[in-house]
Amino acid sequence: MASFHKVIVIIGFLSLFHTAFSATQHRSYLRITSQEFTTLPLDIVIQAVVSLFAVMWGVLNVAGNLREIPAAAELNAIKWETQNNLPSFYIFNHRGKALSYDYVPTPTKADLENLE
């Protein structure tokens, strides 16, 4: 059955190619006869729509059954306690260390020059 759908896809693509070629020929015919382009003929439009639907139907059937992708599949394996564990946001050198009782400020460049 899949080979039938593949044939439908191939025929649909060939029909779409033929539609594009027909539209190009129609435009060049209008240029040669110095007519103004308004719309494509109805047969070209119908062929384009039918071939597009044939290709879509064939591709959906060739692809097989669609399966659901669980959006939270990765999150199911992670425990709630580790959700907020973001190592990239760890900051160890911040001004909160000055609140520590054993904080010794690091000497600045000016302090080091004054020692000499």
Seen as an oligomer or otherwise, the chain set is single chain
Terminal residue distance? 90 Å
Structural class based on helices, strands and sheet pairing: mainly alpha
Order of helices and strands: HHHH
CA radius of gyration: 35 Å
Q: What percentage of residues falls in helices of 4 or more residues?
A: 55-70%
| Main sheet attributes: strand count, strand direction, barrel closure | none
**Which spans have pLDDT < 50 for at least 5 consecutive residues?**
none
What would your notes on this structure say?
The protein is an all-alpha fold. It is built from four helices and no strands. The chain has helices at residues 2-32, 42-63, 73-76, 109-115. Helix 1 runs antiparallel to helix 2 (42-63). The longest helix has 31 residues, at 2-32. InterPro entries: MMgT. Part of the endoplasmic reticulum membrane protein complex (EMC) that enables the energy-independent insertion into endoplasmic reticulum membranes of newly synthesized membrane proteins. May be involved in Mg(2+) transport.
